[in-house]
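TA notes, week 10

Several of you asked for a full example with nothing omitted. So below is the full record: structure tokens for the whole chain, then the designed sequence directly under it. When grading your own attempts, check the secondary structure regions first.
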């Protein structure tokens, strides 16, 4: 008797389970999108927004009669870093600074004391850093940070300048 009741119960369960569910179904779609625009950001390797440092260090009588070279990754300096969207073409240029005479850049201390210097893209005394985007070489962004050394030279120090802290500020421009 127990066997018949179990068989009957299992048969009933199987019959109920085999009946299709009567649920309605409707479908739709979801469009997912993003719009990436050309953009660039300028930072230094230290993370400061746009302020790379080129430090010629201490100048004393041992430097007389020679070129004094530096780069943004040596003597306490920091590289210029540019991050542009993947495939974005850009150019880096540098103005003549705050103390130019014609197109010659000068470090300045106090009143009229100056030291002439030049900027280069590849090595001290190499390719002169362009003053305008039109003169610069195009680079293509890869979506990651691209770091650049900027090289400087104080050419043939023929006389020791007056004691002081000499500075200049050069505006770097990324045109894309």
């Amino acid at each position: 008797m127990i066997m018949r009741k179990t068989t009957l119960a299992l048969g009933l369960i199987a019959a109920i389970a085999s009946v299709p569910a009567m649920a309605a179904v409707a479908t739709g779609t979801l469009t997912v999108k993003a719009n990436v625009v050309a953009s660039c950001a300028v930072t230094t390797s230290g993370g400061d927004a746009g302020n790379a440092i080129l430090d010629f260090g201490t100048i004393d009588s041992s430097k007389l009669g020679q070129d004094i070279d530096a780069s943004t990754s040596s003597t306490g300096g920091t590289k210029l870093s540019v991050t542009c969207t993947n495939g974005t073409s850009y150019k880096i240029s540098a103005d003549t600074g705050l103390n130019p005479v014609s197109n010659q850049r000068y470090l300045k201390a106090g009143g009229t004391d100056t030291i002439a210097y030049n900027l280069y893209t590849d090595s001290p005394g190499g390719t002169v850093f362009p003053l305008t985007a039109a003169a610069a070489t195009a680079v293509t962004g890869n979506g990651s940070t691209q770091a650049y050394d900027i090289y400087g030279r104080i050419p043939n120090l023929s006389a020791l300048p007056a004691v002081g802290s000499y500075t200049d500020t050069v505006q770097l421009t990324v045109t894309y």
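The helical segments are 2-17. Use that as a sanity check on your answer.
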